[in-house]
Specification:
alpha+beta, Elongation Factor Tu (Ef-tu), domain 3, six-stranded antiparallel barrel, 29% strand
Amino acid sequence: IRHLLKSHDFDGAQRLLGRPYALCGRVIYGQQLGRKIGFPTANIALSNSPPVRGVFGCTVTLPDEQVVGGVANIGSRPTVSGQQVRLEVHLHAFTGELYGQMLTVTPRVFIRAEQKFDSLEALTEQIRIDNDMARQLLGSLTGFETE
């Protein structure tokens, strides 16, 4: 299963698990950088290091069981000198506070590997592209409302 997840074969992992692979954790305070650049994220505390890394279109199950689409990064955030592996997710079609709440993030489609950018502006532009790609891919995969 780990091999399938590392190769971003989420359908194959789901067949073996009998359910979609998902990461669960509590939303914690971060540096608020995503909010500053126009893409607020829920920073989710992980109890262990997941086998997947990169940027993904995902679905997020909220505490009230509502499911929304989003774009997630699982990695160390090299552009901002991150050290620890983190899960950050920008939710589509959601506004509100999530601090302290438990979320379930299900990676659905791999978008790209994590990379270091030369500037915050270059990172912001790539996040915009990733976000648009996640909306398109999730819409075609699941029929979710991503607006």
